[in-house]
Amino acid sequence: MSMAVTRTKAVDIKARQRNREEWKRGLPIYAMILPGFIFFIVFKYVPMGGIMIAFQNYDPFDGFLQSAWVGFDNFQKLFHDPDFWKIFRNTLLISALNLFLFFPVPIIVSLLLNEVRVKWFKKGAQTLLYVPHFLSWVVVVSITVLLFSTQDGGINNMLSTWGYERMEVMTNPSYFRIVYLLQVVWKEAGWSAIIFLAALAAVDPTLYEAATMDGASRLRQIWHINLPALRSTIIILFILRLGHVMDTGFEHILLLQNSLNIDVSEVFDTYVYRVGILQAEFSYTTAVGLFKALIGLGLVYLANRASRKIGEEGVY
């Protein structure tokens, strides 16, 4: 009996020693993870406690605990706001542009870059496509204004010189969504293609060799090898993007917004800024933010379930 106990203790000691050694080996990795972990705790999870003011008539002087509770009054105010459906429609339309028109562009860019065999040209093209990502939206919108300003924009001056009418790009509401989409594509398509290029780099080269021996063209190889290799990545990124379906990019839209196009450019992000920050209605705009988050959460849940039903892993 004592021999068995001694053997068990020896096994426990060895297991603890092994765990300590594994912990020591993993310390550099844990150290790299720690800043990101702290970031999410401080800036993502701790602020979630402020959701309670969506159900209060929050007063900064009274604080979270002393402010009067009003239940769902702020949500009722949101749904009865005469501008609610206009803002909701604008937000969904711009999100649809991001989901169904912009989202495929990085995939196409990655497929095209993957087909380039000249290394120096491929690297140069990648660099040119990545650079716009590092420009702020202020710079991007300023470039657009310089080019399309009605009075002294470079392109409008050119059109006027050639005898054509000037284009009211920045003030005409019908151009707003087109300008928004083109700017997003120019700025983010190359950068967003990186993850798809990484997935394509993991494809076994022997698959291309076998397809070539079977007489498959480059288009056939893209369709039967590259796209299936990207399918899981596409589904996961699409699900994650659905979580931000109500987030349309505050800074970008605010810079493009003016009094002439506000009927098509007012979205929840700019509405929260205008009402919550400028008019200090903190409880009301917190309710708006919670409404947006719940929609995103619901879409992610439904999309994840759908992905699992078609045999994909999903996000969780």
From TrEMBL:
Keywords: Membrane, Transmembrane, Transmembrane helix, Transport
Ranges where the ABC transmembrane type-1 domain occurs: 88-303
Gene Ontology BP, a term: transmembrane transport
Residues annotated as transmembrane: 27-46, 92-116, 128-149, 189-208, 229-246, 282-303
Localization, UniProt: Cell membrane; Membrane
Database matches in Pfam families: BPD_transp_1
Stretches of the chain forming a coiled coil according to its record: none
Domain of life, source organism: Bacteria
UniProt-recorded name of the protein: Sugar ABC transporter permease
Organism annotation: Paenibacillus thalictri
Organism classification: Bacteria, Bacillati, Bacillota, Bacilli, Bacillales
